[in-house]
Design a protein that fits this description.
Distance between the termini: 40 Å
Order of helices and strands: HHHHHHH
Number of helices: 7
Length: about 140
């Protein structure tokens, strides 16, 4: 009985592994693109205990992963999930560019550990990511 239950539960393991792998690939692609478009080195700044960089970067990651999760949950196929994952990526990149337009000193503020700017960028990234995710459900 227990072996049957485990066997039935694991029938979806292949699909899980595929969607998880593609999701991780999209996450890695997002990180590579994001750290390329920002004029400062997030990872290095975070290693140097820069709170503003940590807040803004984790906000951007969260703002991408929230709609990516929605795409996984609501997609009708792997291709559909991939398309909506790419949409989520584009939305998050545009979000950064919009915040940078509102705060033109942002490229200098984050490396100088101006925490309020890191909080604003991170929070807006999460807010837009959440809205993006909710819009994907319709």
């Amino acid at each position: 009985m227990m072996i049957e239950t485990v066997s039935i539960s694991l029938q979806g393991l292949g699909a899980f592994a595929t969607y998880f792998g593609v999701s991780l690939g999209l996450l890695i692609a997002f990180v590579l693109i994001y750290v390329t478009i920002t004029p400062y080195k997030e990872i290095q700044l975070i290693r140097e205990n820069n709170t503003a960089a940590a807040l803004s970067f984790t906000g951007a990651l969260s703002g991408f992963v929230i709609p990516l999760g929605s795409a996984v949950a609501h997609s009708v196929s792997l291709a559909d999930m991939l398309i909506w994952g790419l949409v989520a990526m584009c939305v998050q990149i545009v979000t950064y560019l919009c915040v940078k337009a509102v705060f033109p000193n942002l490229p200098a503020d984050i490396p100088h550990n101006h925490v309020p700017k890191g909080i604003v960028l991170g929070a807006i990234s999460v807010i837009i990511g959440y809205l993006n995710a909710m819009c994907m459900t319709y």
